[in-house]
Amino acid sequence: MIQPHDLALVGASGPIDLATDHFFMGEALRLARQAYQKAEVPVGAVIVREGQIIARSWNQVETLKDATAHAEMLALTQAESAQADWRLTDCDLYVTKEPCPMCAGAIVHCRIRRVIFGCPDAKGGAAGGFINLLQTANLNHRSEVTPGVRGAECLEILQGFFAERRSAKKE
Fold it and tell me: CA quadruple 123, 129, 45, 137: dihedral positive or negative?
């Protein structure tokens, strides 16, 4: 029987190495900090295939003046280019905040194997926070979901960003 202190768990796609998840979420957090510095909502994402990062991005909605320029969407496009295929069936997505419905839809269509996220989004998350599009039975694909990886750090950066924005509006 697996004990809570074990470093590896078993998911539908095989063993889940929590130390590896911690590492790759650290990379996503680094990207979220870059977004913060550019006055973007601080969300970072990396896509991993066979232990290697093949795509990385952060939110760029304000920079690109594009409502679809979420970290996940930009990373998916990069990964598709890197793989020369829109099917990302052997790839895992690490993202600092639970994906929204738009991103979750793209994740399903790209057939991402596993989605690992930091903090949940009870108001708009589509990986179980508000709804769960990533595991809807009648869609063509279901991604395995691992929530809460480095969740406190991911939440802290988002809360800090929005607190700073609210404070600036009061001035």
Answer: negative
